[in-house]
Write a structure and sequence with these properties.
Radius of gyration: 18 Å
Structural class: alpha/beta
Distance between the termini: 46 Å
Strand content: 5-15%
Helix content: 25-40%
Order of helices and strands: HHEHEHHEHEEEHHH
Strand order of the largest sheet: 2-1-3-4-5-6
Number of strands: 6
Number of helices: 9
Length: 240
């Protein structure tokens, strides 16, 4: 709906609706194919777990970029892209990855991988290291409690503690700990390979790999470290 609404003005959705420039508090990394209501559900859970005010700003490319003029996405230097500028904004505390149900498609998309790279590599150079949270939709019946009951479909979250530790932040169900971040998603992250990610346009894939350069394996390692406890749990309990 963004392109039709902004076609007449040929501007971004944010420029059409906002009264003034807005500094992002959190950067959203996502896949365009994720159902929008799932995106809103994950964002709501994230805002609650991070105790954000109602006027806290998320930067999301769908709304922040001018979808009629995308030439800035082809900048030769990674830090000149709109994505990197938002992540490196001093006001931006962290990046949150919204992962679609079951598939975690962003792990296979090159533009998302670039955002992970900027968050991990350049975000570490900020005065306060860029946090990196992950949200996903937990399928119905994915989690079984000690009493044998199974969860309703919900949103789940992993929270970066800023000290190298990542904790499960529970779900958006009335009793949050009746569902948790799916091990299957963590297992996909643990198998992630930056160099195997895809893009709609081959030139984008080639250019992004050029920008990432020798840091590809470092990004792989950091993401695997983030998800390894949940992935290890799946390996022991479900794949044994």
């Amino acid at each position: 709906f963004v392109v039709p609404l902004t076609k007449k003005q040929e501007c971004s959705f944010m420029e059409l609706t906002a009264d003034a420039a807005q500094d992002p508090l959190w950067f959203v990394s996502h896949w365009w194919g994720t159902p929008f209501f799932d995106t809103l559900r994950m964002m709501r859970l994230h805002s609650v777990r991070r105790n954000l005010a109602q006027d806290a700003c998320y930067w999301m490319c769908t709304f922040a970029n001018n979808q009629h003029h995308l030439s800035k996405l082809s900048e030769l230097g990674v830090l000149s892209t709109p994505f990197a500028k938002a992540i490196m904004d001093p006001a931006c505390k962290g990046t949150v990855a919204f992962l679609d149900e079951r598939n975690a498609t962003p792990f296979t998309r090159m533009w998302c991988v670039l955002e992970y790279f900027v968050t991990i590599h350049y975000g570490a150079t900020k005065q306060a290291r860029q946090l990196f949270d992950c949200c996903t939709i937990v399928p119905e019946g994915e989690c079984e409690s000690a009493d044998g009951s199974q969860n309703e479909r919900c949103a789940g979250i992993l929270l970066d503690q800023g000290n190298g530790d990542v904790v499960d932040g529970g779900s958006d169900l009335p009793v949050p700990d009746t569902a948790w971040f799916p091990s299957a998603i963590s297992f996909k992250a643990f198998a992630l390979d930056v160099c195997s990610a895809r893009a709609s346009h081959e030139e984008d894939r080639v250019n992004i790999l050029r920008l990432i350069g020798d840091e590809a394996e470092a990004v792989n390692t950091c993401l695997r470290r983030m998800f390894w406890p949940s992935a290890a749990y799946m390996a022991v309990t479900e794949l044994a």
